[in-house]
Amino acid sequence: MTIIRFENPLIQSEMVKFSVTKIEPFVSKAGNSGASVQLYIEDPKSGKAARIRTILIAQMPHILKHFCEAIGKPELYKKDETSLNTDELIGAKGYLILGIRHNDYNDIDENYVRDFISKDKAPADIIDDKIPF
Questions:
Q1: DSSP 14-25
Q2: In angstroms, how far is CA 92 from the centroid of its own chain?
Q3: How far apart are CA 17 and CA 98, in angstroms?
């Protein structure tokens, strides 16, 4: 049997395209519930692609709001509600601001989501006309 381990390339660009590939319920160590969101990200400049995870929780309303705006569905964000219909999110596409941080546990540098941005705030050189909003 051959085991193949896929490693994500480190993407250096700050702004990239994303699509939502998977969503699972999540509960933080502090007991806050939310969603663990797997994203497929693509760097339009280098052509590199990777999968990363981010967490959406009501205790970070600005990230949740920016996520809904980034996928072109600002109506999904309701300030006083703590739930989000995840059925509408699989396959959603948008843009995000990417960061790099060091993961001490694995002793590697990795990408993470700093924030989500709407298409009108994304730089022209990463805009994809296949994203309809």
A1: SEEEEEEEEEEE
A2: 10
A3: 10
Within 10 A of 93 (CB to CB), how many other CB atoms are there?
A: 19
Q: Where are the domains of the chain?
A: 15-79+86-126
The band of 53, judged by pLDDT with boundaries at 50, 70 and 90, is very high
- Give the residue with greater pLDDT, 8 vs 14: 14
Q: Tokens at residue 76, please?
A: 């999904």
* pTM of the predicted model as reported, rounded to 2 decimal places: 0.79
Assigned token pair, 106: 């694995």
Question: What does the alpha-carbon distance between residue 44 and residue 54 come to, in Å, rounded to a whole number?
Answer: 21
Helical H segments across the chain, by residue range: 61-70
